[in-house]
Amino acid sequence: MDATYENLTAFVRKHGSVTILDTQGRARKLPSGETDVLDVIDKADRFVFEGKWYSRSEFEALMDQL
Asked: How many CB atoms lie within 10 A of CB 39?
């Protein structure tokens, strides 16, 4: 599953917070319903879920599994 805004917000609603790291290295929380992170999500290359870091491809695979 692609790490799009819609897919990430659905994942957050179901499984809890995800921290994303954009290409400029700024970490941001992704609370459900927040709309100002679209560009950050598109450029994100690292994700943190339950204390573990994932690459974009690893996190997309995780979303498929959960």
From this structure: 10
Hey, which residues does 21 pair with through a beta bridge? Answer: 27, 46
pLDDT at 35: 43
d(C-alpha 39, C-alpha 51), whole Å: 23
Q: What span, in angstroms and rounded, lies between the C-alpha atoms of 14 and 26?
A: 24
pLDDT in tens, 33-53: 554 567 778 888 899 999 999
Rounded Cα–Cα distance for residues 45 and 23 (Å): 7
Rounded (5°) CA angle 21-25-30: 30
Dist. CA 24–CA 17, nearest whole Å = 21
